[in-house]
Amino acid sequence: MTLDAVEMDLSKSFEFGMGYVALSRVRTLGGINLLGINYIALEVNPQVHEFDKALQKLSRKSSAEVAKMGILKKRSAQKEFLERCEA
S-S: 10 plus which of 21, 26, 33, 37, CB 3.0-4.6 Å? Predict the structure, then answer.
């Protein structure tokens, strides 16, 4: 759900990321009227942060491997990937 404008009070947020989820629903910063906020509303769960760092590391590794491939090998890998997705 996306909204043009909201008025919200995040001072009673009780889970990591609740504020992010709420704020991300609004199309523009101008559409936000924030009445309150607490320390946890925008805090990232430490486990999620570590998982994200691991994914970024894997992504850099994959990008480096793809950069080393020749064009024919890239096309072959893409074709194989798409065939597996259709299966």
Answer: 37
pTM equals 0.62
* Per-domain residue ranges of the chain: 6-37, 46-86
Residue 14's alpha-carbon distances to 32, 43, 74, in angstroms, are: 20, 11, 46
C-alpha span between 31 and 47 (Å, rounded): 31
User: Side-chain half-sphere of 18: how many Cα atoms within 13 Å?
Assistant: 14
What are the backbone angles phi and psi of residue 2, rounded to the nearest 5°? -115, 140
Say whether pLDDT at 70 is over 80.
Answer: yes
